[in-house]
Amino acid sequence: MKQFLKNPLPTVRPEELKGKLIVIEGPDSSGRSTQIELLTKWLELKGYPVVCTGLKRSILVANELELALKGNVLSPRTLTLFYATDFYDQLENVIIPSLRAGFIVLADRYIYTLMARAIIRGAEREWIEAIYEMAIIPDLVLYLSVSPSVLVERTFQAHQQLDYWESGMDLGFSKDWFTSFLKYQRKMRLEFKKMEKKFQFEIVNANRTPKSVDRDLKARIARVLNGS
Fold first, then answer.
1. Cα separation of 146 and 209, whole Å?
2. CB neighbours of residue 125 within 10 Å
3. pTM across the whole model
4. Which of 8, 59, 60, 136 is the most buried (most CB within 10 A)?
5. Model confidence band, residue 115 (pLDDT cutoffs 50, 70, 90)
6. Which of 98, 120, 104, 66 is nearest to 221 (CA)?
7. How does residue 228 score in pLDDT terms, banded at 50, 70 and 90?
8. Rg of the Cα trace of the chain?
């Protein structure tokens, strides 16, 4: 039976949620999108119905959140609450209905990224955990661990530039984007390390080739689907 960080939404009966919630966590350029695509095809070929979710996908606020992020003017607390709205809209209207229907929900990041980002930006740990207390505890959380140097290389290969928020430029670490990116990503890795035991993450070495990571993820997910 599904469990929640603290309390379920008032209309939710945990015993009705028959599907599986599998979360793929990791920084930008860690290979999450590629792995989600591969896993979706693999699961569907095995006969499992799959729904994918992720950050900034809420019908309610995703467009507004994206526009606000481009302005680079949101305060840390406003940003946190904006993302929380995005999450809860998807929880109520996508994740829970899909789990009731027996689907596998593949989440391209979840509350853990949002919590880590908020804590690095000064949020109290108790406050941010209280915000997400109605979140469902996933059946499996796989964290794609990539060294900051590899992240930089992959980011430039894919985008030719660094992202303002993923570089922590709002935090004043450095005026140099490259230096700020490395400092921010190291802080994120440290925060995930702190959460690893509490939230039972499985760490996956994503410095390897996509095929190697794919095999690793499938083996771990198969164990959950087989009930072992």
1. 12
2. 13
3. 0.93
4. 136
5. very high
6. 104
7. low
8. 17
51: burial class by Cβ within 10 Å (0-12, 13-18, 19+)? Answer: middle
Burial annotation 201-228 (CB, 10 A radius, 16+ → b, else e): beebebbeeeeebbebbbeebeeeeeee
Confidence of residue 157 (pLDDT cuts 50, 70, 90): confident
Alpha-carbon distance of 217 to 116, in angstroms, equals 23
Question: Residue 132 has which token pair?
Answer: 């997400």
Q: How many CA atoms lie within 13 A of 91 on its CB side?
A: 21
CA 195/CA 212 separation, integer angstroms? 25
Range 18-211 has CATH code 3.40.50.300: yes
pLDDT at 72 over 80: no
Beta bridge partners of 136: 4
